[in-house]
Amino acid sequence: MDAFKGATVLMLFAFFTRYACCDEYFRMGVNTNSAEALQFLREYDREASGMCYRVTISQWKFVTNITEYNRRRMLEELALSSKFERLSWRKAAAYDASRLPDPQGRRQLMRVVQASRAALPDDKFTEIQQLITEMKEIYNTAKICPYGQKPYDPHIPKMLSNQDFMTNQYQLASNPYQHYQPHQENTEYPNYCDMQLDPEISRILAHSRIESELLYVWKSFREQTGPKLKNRFMRYVQLANQAAVATGFRDAGDQMRTAYDDPSFRTSAEEVYNQVAPLYKQLFTYVRRRLVQRYGEASVRGDGPIPAHLLGNMWAQNWKSIMDLVMPFPQAPNVDITAEMLRQGFTPLRMFQMAEEFYTSLGLKPVPPEFWRGSMLVRPPQRSVQCTASAWDFCNRIDYRIKQCTEVTMQDLISTHHEMAHIQYYLQYAEQPQLFRDGANPAFHEAVANAASLSVYNLQHLQRLGLYQNKTHDPYEVSMNFLMSMALEKVAYLPFAFMVDQWRWSVFEDGVENMNNRWWQMKLRYQGVIPPMPRTESDFDPGSKYHVISDQEYIKYFLATILEFQIFEHLCLASGHTGHLHECDIYRSRDAGRLLSEIMQPGASKPASEIIRTMTKGKTNKISPDSLVRYFRPLELWLRVQNRDEPLIGWSSNYHDVALFAPQRGSGSSNTARVGILAALICLTL
Ligand code: X8Z
Ligand code: ZN
Predict the structure, then answer these.
(1) From ligand 2's centre to the CA of 586, what distance in Å?
(2) Nearest alpha carbon to residue 170 among 139, 209, 143
(3) What is the pLDDT of residue 680?
(4) What 3-state DSSP class applies to 202?
(5) Which of 56, 144, 225, 366 could form a disulfide with 6 if both were Cys (CB 3.0 to 4.6 A apart)?
(6) 3-state secondary structure string, 628-658?
(7) Whose CA is nearest to atom 12 of ligand 1?
(8) Chain mean pLDDT for the chain
(9) Positive or negative, the Cα torsion across 210, 388, 432, 594?
(10) Is 184's pLDDT higher than 80?
């Protein structure tokens, strides 16, 4: 999932002029001595790599062994690196990057300048960092009581492992406790209200089909996050905007968008969204029909938006958990090789060796011995760890590690290949200076890792590995089931991934009034999703999404999902694949490997547009959704047939939908008319 980079956030201020780059303006210094600037960059590279190593080691120690001591050590290192970064930022700020004749040096200096909040005075800089830390802490410690709040019962079933879930050895929720076991330290406690988002709450949303239970966890998690975060978030918005303006940007959203080197970035992203929206609406319409069949018209209107708690996920962003409700051909299998992996005696180590062999089969690099010595590939017994899978670059060109609590499941096999792709990216750009050891833009790391995974979660590849065989079922039906499971993960995700930063940018741009209302307006407009219960401005539902309160941009996930298919298609072309895109496997293709290496090696030293131009052999320099649409074309045709009798492809919202979150002013007909106009506008923009 995660590509973990050491804390190398850098900054600037001092004697400013205005510098125009790609129609974006930010402030630069007046020192035009280029020899001095290059000397600064050389020193910076050495010191920043060292600092990054120390911080990353301290973070690794903490997340793989959560103790108070390790937390303190990590915070100390972070404080030191913060100091170093502010100092470096001031030095960098003194130069006028536009006057540097060396384009690579110019690019490095600009990278130091752009993303920074160091234009803030010391107290405000510390305050915003503190706020973000507090918000993460509140989020990470949010807990809810089990549904029904029964007192502790020692006979409740054990909590199931991921493996149990993947092998379908679970029941749908007839017993609200079946997903849940109290955390170990709390087993004596009579009222164990310690269910966390991951894994307990997420599992209920994924596996329960009891509407009241889904509603309960949906609502309770928001109660435990939003209201506690709202005031802090509003102050964070204020400070982030101040930092952006002081650095020469219009607002914090404007500053975030500079990472994409594209003056018309907003329009470009919107165009991409518009091209995938028709496919999303076909999927949406088909899924809604199945939900109506499961939950009834009283819960889901036949031509309306879908209530957010029924889609298998806290944010309705990934629908793969409701595959059981929407499977195109229930008599054909949903491809899952977990049982076969267990039968063949797979181990986590073997899964990683297999992933390494996938990349070396393309002619790419093996991982160094330090990887095998240092990584945490399974959950260690008797110590507390953070289990989210991540790939780590320790900034010293030697140490690369993965942290993953691997279980023998198909999902973890895919995740293993995904994380190993991040490591491969690190290895490929290792010779770049520290400031360029990164993706070409923020979407690239995830896109490359997912593109490789598309070749792994793929019937042809699984067959080649001897993990899947279809002797009895209609291949067309198996293919449709496969494409549906991919669509529930990728296509369903697109409008969510698009809307999060639309909302965030609107808050940075227009202020914090009616934030919750605007969140739901966008959820409705892009996703066609409504809250399952009334919301007001004392709720703060965006706060239920970690990336919002932890200051992590989100549009990169939208673009990464588009770009992964574009990269995948070009790798497939290089490998000589003909036929359906979803059937392409690049395994053992040296030509695909060479192209992948060309994409990864430059890191961030070149603009993303140049890398895309190379990748597409000059056809385009833009991120394009054509490959994604092509990949899902067979499913889209099938969906069109399924939806032929539907009154509406997409959704229309009525007064009641909008009244769930729009502020109610006045009363009677004027109010009805006002909300009616809003609803009409929403429909028009679909
Ligand atoms: O945040 C993540 C990963 C780290 S890159 C855990 N993801 C996004 C999310 O959870 O919303 C992966 C999918 C999108
Ligand atoms: Zn990742």
Answers:
(1) 20
(2) 209
(3) 35
(4) helix
(5) 56
(6) HHHHCHHHHHHHHHHCCCCCCCCCCCCHHHH
(7) 1
(8) 89
(9) negative
(10) no
Ligand 1 mean position, distance from CA 229 (Å): 21
pLDDT, residue 29, reads 83
Tell me whether residue 136 is exposed, middle or buried, using C-beta atoms within 10 angstroms of its C-beta: 0 to 12, 13 to 18, 19 or more: middle
Q: Which amino acid is at 242?
A: Q
Q: Provide, rounded to the nearest whole percent, the portion of the chain with pLDDT above 90.
A: 80
Q: How far apart are CA 362 and CA 343, in angstroms?
A: 28
Residue 408 alpha carbon to ligand 1 centre in Å:
21
pLDDT at residue 66 in the model? 94
Residue nearest to atom 5 of ligand 1 (CA): 2
DSSP H helices, 392-470, are 410-428, 444-454, 459-464
Report the DSSP pairing between strands 24-28 and 17-21: antiparallel
Residue 27: per-residue pLDDT:
65
What are the pLDDT digits (tens) for 612-657?
999 999 999 999 999 999 999 999 999 999 999 999 999 999 999 9
Do the beta carbons of residue 289 and residue 646 sit within 8 Å? yes
Read off the pLDDT of residues 78-92 as tens digits, 9 standing for 90 and up.
999 988 988 998 899
Alpha-carbon span 90 to 11, nearest angstrom: 7
User: What residues are paired with 2 via a beta bridge?
Assistant: 390
Residue 332 three-state SS: coil
DSSP state of 530: E
Question: Strand 2-5 relative to strand 390-393: parallel, antiparallel, unpaired?
Answer: parallel
The DSSP line for 87-146 is HHHHHHHTB-GGG-S-HHHHHHHHHHHHT--TTS-HHHHHHHHHHHHHHHHHHHT--BPP
Of all atoms in ligand 1, which is nearest to the CA of residue 390? 4
Task: State yes or no: pLDDT of 664 exceeds 80.
Answer: no
For ligand 2, the distance from its centroid to the CA atom of residue 3, given in whole angstroms, is 5
Nearest CA to ligand 1 atom 6: 1
**What type of residue is 183?**
H
Peptide linkage before 278 cis (omega within 30 of 0)? no
Cα–Cα dist 95/111, whole Å: 13
| Widest pairwise Cα distance in the chain | 74
Topology adopted by domain 129-151+171-638: Neurolysin; domain 3 (1.10.1370)
- Helix (H) / strand (E) element for 27: namely strand 24-28
Task: Say yes or no to pLDDT of 22 above 50.
Answer: no
Domain residue ranges in the chain: 2-116, 129-151+171-638, 653-686
Ligand nearest to the CA of 450: 2
**Which tokens is 341 given?**
């992996």
| Crossing angle between the packed helical segments 444-454 and 555-575, to the nearest 10 degrees | 50
Higher pLDDT pick, 396 / 11: 396
> 627 in helix, strand or coil?
helix
The answer on pLDDT for 145 being more than 60 is yes
Angle between helices 68-93 and 34-63 (to 10 degrees): 170
Quick check: helix, strand or coil at residue 25?
strand
pLDDT of residue 99: 86
Is residue 4 predicted with pLDDT exceeding 80? no
Write out residues with Cβ below 6 Å of ligand 1: 1-2, 388, 557
Tokens of 496: 């969510």
Looking at residue 11, its pLDDT comes to 30
Q: Report the distance separating Cα 490 and Cα 471, nearest Å.
A: 28
Give residue 153's pLDDT band: very low, low, confident or very high (50, 70, 90). very low
Tell me which DSSP letter residue 161 carries: P
678 is written with which tokens?
A: 């809003």
Q: How far is the C-alpha of 314 from the C-alpha of 206, rounded, in Å?
A: 9
Q: Which of these, 541, 533, 523, lies nearest to 660 by C-alpha position? A: 533
Q: Quick check: helix, strand or coil at residue 274?
A: helix
Residue 415 CA: which ligand is closest? 2
Give the torsion through C-alpha atoms of 393, 395, 396, 398, to 10 deg. Answer: 10
In the sheet with 2-5, reading across from the earlier edge strand, the strands are 2-5, 390-393, 400-403
